[in-house]
Design goal:
Strand content: under 5%
Distance between the termini: 27 Å
Number of strands: 0
Order of helices and strands: HHHHHHHHHHHH
Structural class: mainly alpha
Shape: globular
Largest sheet: none
Radius of gyration: 19 Å
C-alpha cells in the first residue's frame, strides 16, 4: 500500500530509479545522444544506490558487505555525492541528492539534510514528493512543527502517485498529535472511506486513533 511504500521506500525507490523510462526528444539525432547520456546517468545512479542497498555484516561468498553501519554510510554518501556533483540538476542527480539527504538526516546532520532535501523538494523530480515527506520529518525532529505542517498540507492538496492524499493526511495527523490532538482527530475522520479500506491506511489510522484516545 501507499503508506507501507513511503515508510520503507528505500529499496522500492531504488528499483524504480534504476529503470527510469527515457524521455523521447523531438529531434532524431539528438534523441540518440540524449538517450545515451540518460543511460550513463542511470547506470551511475544504479551503482551508487547499490552501495546504499549493500548489507552490513561479516564478509561472505555471496556478495559485498560493510563491517559497520558507519562504514556503509560513509561509502554511500561518497557514491551519492559523486552522482550529485556529476549530474547536478538532472533527475539522476536529484534522486541521488534525495538519498544523500535521508542518510544525512539518519546520521543526525539535520542542517545538511535540510539543504539537500529542500533542493529536491522544490524541484520537478519524480522523487520530490518523497523529499517533502523526509524534509517534514527533519522539521519535526527539530520541533519546527509549523514548517512540517505546511509541507504536509501541500501534499494533501496535491497528492501524487508516490505520496497519496490519505498517506499525507495520516502524517499530518501525526504531526498535529502533540500540539493539536483535536485537529489530529478531525484529519483522521476526513480520510476518504475508499482510502480507509486499504489495509495499510486502515492500520495506520486505527493505530493513531488509539493513541489519541488515551
Amino acid at each position: 500500500g501507499a503508506l507501507e511504500y513511503a515508510s520503507s521506500h528505500r529499496q522500492s525507490v531504488t528499483r524504480w530509479a534504476i529503470v527510469i523510462v527515457l524521455a523521447i526528444l523531438l529531434s532524431g539525432g539528438g534523441y540518440w545522444y540524449y538517450a545515451h547520456q540518460k543511460s550513463v546517468r542511470r547506470q551511475d545512479l544504479g551503482a551508487a544506490l547499490s552501495v546504499v542497498d549493500t548489507p552490513v555484516g561479516p564478509a561472505n561468498d555471496y556478495g559485498k558487505t560493510f563491517p559497520t553501519e558507519d562504514a556503509k554510510r560513509k561509502a554511500a554518501l561518497q557514491a551519492l555525492s559523486g552522482v550529485v556533483a556529476k549530474y547536478s540538476g538532472s533527475n539522476a542527480g536529484l534522486i541521488a541528492q534525495y538519498y544523500r539527504g535521508t542518510l544525512e538526516a539518519q546520521a543526525g546532520d539535520a542542517k545538511t539534510a535540510e539543504t539537500d532535501l529542500h533542493a529536491v523538494a522544490n524541484s520537478d523530480s519524480e522523487v520530490a514528493p518523497l523529499a517533502r515527506i523526509a524534509l517534514a520529518q527533519v522539521y519535526l525532529d527539530q520541533k519546527k512543527t509549523a514548517e512540517a505542517q505546511s509541507l504536509l498540507r501541500a501534499i494533501v492538496n496535491s497528492p501524487t502517485s508516490l505520496v497519496s492524499k490519505a498517506q499525507a493526511q495520516i502524517l499530518l495527523a501525526k504531526a498535529d498529535e502533540s500540539v493539536n490532538p483535536t485537529e489530529s482527530k478531525n484529519i483522521l475522520k476526513s480520510i476518504d472511506k475508499s482510502d480507509q479500506g486499504r489495509p495499510a491506511v486502515s492500520r495506520a489510522t486505527d493505530q493513531l486513533s488509539s493513541q489519541l484516545a488515551k
